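Lecture 7 notes: from sequence to structure.
We start with the chain below.
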Amino acid sequence: MSELSVSVIQVSYGDDEAMADRIERVAGMVRAEAGQDLVVLPELWPVGGFDVKHWAERAQQVPAVGTVPADGPDDPALAVVRAMSAAARDAGVHLHAGSTVERSAEPGPEGKDLWNSSLVFGPDGALRATYRKVHRFGFSSGEARTIEAGSDLVTVPIEGFTAHLATCFDLRFPEFFRAGLDAGADLLVIPAAWPMPRREHWRTLLRARAIENQMPVIACNTAGTHAGDHEMGGASVVVDAAGSVLAEAGDGEQVLRAVLDPAHTAQQREDFPVLAARRW
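Predicted structure tokens for the same chain:
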């Protein structure tokens, strides 16, 4: 089993940066990580993590899994998938492109056609996986009112690991990660737009998910202040299967790099076989 070299790009942005400019800037940051195996971006970085009033106008089309986004005339609704596909291909990396707001052709059960969708591209630029966020934040407002809830658990193979995809508020639901474990996952990748006031929850829950599932966690949060006064928490982190922090970001824009070894995960599960003691 080979090691996985990871880059976590904690993007910082504000309301003064145009969406098109940010997409171009972040694509360049991805290309700069050529030589790594996996690059991870935050949740909703193209459209603004709390910028709900602009989501519909900034929503993106998402192609079918297994396809490379086709070239064609400039289309703002394809800007994210085209730019991220090209950046992954140019860098030769697996790219978890964080998430964006997706507009689907068919509405969901609640009659909405918007989703918070995470996109994973392969080194060939093909879309390898799409995960629609299951647990929406906002309770009766914000994301919970604006977008549909996903219903599928999604895993994707990445260089010897099986990654369970989750997004931000999902982190508060431990049963979701047990389901990923039972589906064969041995790595958690979670982009987020987690705010500063609850940053200690973020840190605690990420290590808890790693420890209780004996599963490394790659978590990429946003930095900066946007949608008026929403200060983001930063503190992106890579945690190993024993719960040890391998790398952690500060408050601003930063790139973390770490190496994960699947043999370490297997050894941790063998040396301390807590998962074998489960009763249900």
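Points to note: DSSP finds seven helices and 14 strands in the chain. Residues 4-273 form a domain with the Nitrilase/N-carbamoyl-D-aminoacid amidohydrolase fold (CATH 3.60.110.10).
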